[in-house]
Amino acid sequence: MRGSIFSSSRSRGEAVKASNTEGSHDQQCGSGAFNSVDASDQTFVILHCRRYGTINRALVEGAIRALTSCMVPPERIHIIEVPTPSDLPFAASKSIKVLNPSAVLAIGCIMADNPQYVGPDNEFNAACKGAILGAITKSLLDIQINTDVPIVDGILSVPRLCQAQARCGLTEHINYGYDWGLSAAHVANLTSTISMKAAASKRIDSPESSSTVSFKSG
């Protein structure tokens, strides 16, 4: 029987502390596509995979830096490790039911050097990799639509390890995880804004909110 996929290689506090101390200043930055926002009242789940752990942990630390820049306290960031990218949809669904987050960030990495995507002649099977990635992405989209909880797709799909290292801040001055963290903060705030506007609209349209004027015949 398969064991639980919910495990963590580091405590939440340790991960947040590490995200604030590891790497150079340049490696803490994203592409600049998003600005920091105030998401201090939001709760987040960050899922990451054990496979290619060095890459994924660097991406997670970038995401935590981004959420910290958005004033999200450590106790509002839940970090969950799963074995492989294929486990991300189930983990996302389960964490939404149990933890009720404002947004979920699913981080993983799929590379050509994985034997799962290499044919008998040692050539990269792009079709196989693309099919698996497509299935994972569709599952995550279905979950967020069915649960009304936004899920940020943070799955790196690259041919080679050096490209993944460049995208997580290990060899270049950019970390995709930082952008994904900011994206999660933005979409969580957007969801809250839409919900508040909908609630305000209902109050305005309700019969109790409209004033009643009675006229007496003289």
Extended strand count: 4
The name of the CATH architecture is 3-Layer(aba) Sandwich
Oligomer: single chain
Instruction: Report helical residue fraction.
Output: 40-55%
The total of helices stands at 6
Level-1 CATH class name: Alpha Beta
Q: Tell me, what's the shape?
A: globular
- CATH superfamily, by name, is Lumazine/riboflavin synthase
* Backbone CA Rg: 21 Å
CATH topology, by name, is: Rossmann fold
- The parts where pLDDT drops under 50 for at least 5 residues are 1-11, 21-27, 212-218
Give the spatial strand order of the biggest sheet. Answer: 2-1-3-4
Distance between the termini: 84 Å
Order of helices and strands: HEHEHEHEHH
Tell me the count of domains. 1
Q: Tell me what portion of residues adopts beta-strand conformation.
A: 5-15%
Q: Look at the helices and sheets and give the structural class.
A: alpha/beta
Enzyme class: transferase
Biased composition (Polar residues): 18-29
Keywords: Riboflavin biosynthesis, Transferase
Family: Belongs to the DMRL synthase family.
Question: Can you walk through the features of this model?
Answer:
Helix content is 45%, strand content 13%. By secondary structure, it is of the alpha/beta class. The longest helix is centred in the last third of the chain and has 30 residues, at 176-205. The radius of gyration is 21 Å and the shape is globular. Its EC number is 2.5.1.78.
Brief sketch in words of this structure:
With 218 residues, the chain is of the alpha/beta class. The protein has six helices and four strands. The chain has a single domain (12-209), classed as Lumazine/riboflavin synthase (Rossmann fold), CATH 3.40.50.
